[in-house]
Structures are given as structure tokens and as C-alpha cells.
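Help: read this over?
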Amino acid sequence: MNWPLGTEFVDPGANVFDVTETNDTIDISFRLETSGNVNTEIKDTYEIKYNASDEAGNSADEKTRSVKVLITK
């Protein structure tokens, strides 16, 4: 995603769902963990990493969002 230079970065987050043993799909977004920082004062590409674990401790595959800080007009 692109982000304008000099503006506060607001992470849009992500949704996380789990399929239970009874095949119900439940929202476990409250378990989402993020890492990484975006410095909007420096034009560059940054990475935010997302991960979560379900109640049983099973970890999701980590996902990465690239944030490109750009000069916009």
C-alpha cells in the first residue's frame, strides 16, 4: 500500500478467522499481533507483519504488508 510522506500512519489492521472442530467460523481478530514500524518522515518501503494464534495455540501463517511512503501531490 502507498502512504503519503509526512502524514500519520494508521494501520488498517486485518481480520483473523478460525474454523473450529465443528466447522464453525469464528472471528479471532482480537488475537492479532503486529510488528514493524512506518516512519512517515522518510520516503522508503516498510513492512508490517501480522500473526495470530487460535485458542488451541495453533499459529497462523505470518502475513506481511508492504507500506511505501511516497511524496504525493
Notes: The radius of gyration is 16 Å. The chain has one domain: 2-70. DSSP finds no helices and six strands in the chain.
